[in-house]
Design goal:
- The chain has about 325 residues and is α+β, with helices and mostly antiparallel strands.
- Helix content is about 50%, strand content about 10%.
- It has 13 helices and eight strands.
């Protein structure tokens, strides 16, 4: 007999119970799709993190599973509120919200969580699902629909918000601890930023406190990405300069100016040849538009970037 909450879950998601269990178990059906010897709920996609940075692998769900996960996100997970100190992957919040608390501060400390998604395991996800007040069977089914190889997969639409919910007790405890000491704290995915007076930040054993809290949860700090930034240096929070006003870094502005110049003067194809980039012109223009849009997200009144956006958008429309 099917559990009542599992039946309700099936109805709410619009997917038959048997199909939900198939998606959660990654079973191979009796009649695989033509042209494939094996049916998989996930496939690997390699993406570039920007034009010149390292690539990373994503585990991307198939169409049905992705649709189901999106419905889980909107109909179930958004019922649970993430921490106010967490600024990524939440409706109505942006990179500006992550950077604003650190504007004009004397000192910044930036810490990074190593292999963040890979260390969020099935038990952590199950504990989140139990907060929905559903039966154990329904919570287990939801958990199995949202994990892959027993961890949270990068590439699934549910993973970022589940990560926020897993980290909520950590964020709330650490955020309140910092606030009591006059320190600002925000977390954007695996990036943690702390700001305030230099003396306050350096005398409270902050890094050791964070390391100990993370280890209790099964995480580690990526020490290679630990940064201490004084007011005399360029202070950046998730790519936004916060020394005096929120703005994009000067090196990004200079790069965008140069790329737009070459694209408008010589065309996208010639620009790619000059820059020795191996990518399609359409992909390159989309990437360029995205970086310009990022600059406008930080400062919507930036007339230079507004002009660049119009120029590149017109070029992309011709492709």
């Amino acid at each position: 007999m099917t559990d009542r909450d599992v039946t309700e879950l099936s109805r709410a998601l619009g997917v038959p119970v048997g199909k939900l269990y198939m998606l959660s178990n990654e079973r191979i059906p009796r009649k695989p799709k033509r042209g494939s010897s094996k049916y998989k709920n996930y496939h690997t996609v390699v993406i570039k993190k920007g034009l010149f940075r390292k690539s990373r692998k994503l585990s991307v769900p198939n169409g049905l599973l992705k649709m189901t996960q999106r419905r889980i996100l909107h109909q179930y997970l958004y019922r649970l509120e993430a921490s106010r100190y967490s600024t990524a992957y939440q409706p109505g919040r942006s990179l500006r919200d992550n950077a604003s608390p650190h504007l004009g501060q004397e000192y910044l400390i930036k810490l990074d969580i190593s292999k963040f998604f890979d260390n969020i395991d099935a038990d952590m996800v199950y504990n989140v699902m139990r907060q929905l007040g559903l039966s154990r069977a329904a919570a287990v089914l939801l958990m199995r629909l949202c994990v892959h190889n027993s961890v949270l997969p990068q590439g699934a639409p549910t993973s970022p918000y589940i990560a926020n919910l897993v980290m909520k007790p950590f964020d709330e405890h650490l955020g309140d601890w910092c606030r009591a000491r006059g320190i600002n704290y925000t977390r954007y995915c695996d990036d943690m930023t702390f700001s305030g007076r230099k003396a306050d930040l350096l005398t409270c054993h902050l890094v050791g406190k964070v390391r100990k809290m993370l280890r209790r949860m099964g995480f580690e700090l990526n020490d290679k990405k630990t940064l201490f930034l004084s007011r005399g240096s360029q202070q950046k929070v998730t790519g936004i300069v916060v020394n005096q006003k929120l703005k994009v870094p000067r090196e990004l502005r200079r790069t965008l100016r140069q790329e737009v110049y070459y694209c408008t003067k010589f065309g996208a194809e010639e620009s790619l040849k000059r820059r020795r980039l191996d990518m399609a012109p359409e992909e390159y223009l989309r990437s360029l538009l995205g970086r310009i849009a990022f600059a406008l997200q930080i400062d919507p009144e930036d007339s230079e970037m507004q002009g660049y956006h119009s120029q590149i958008k017109a070029l992309a429309a011709q492709k």
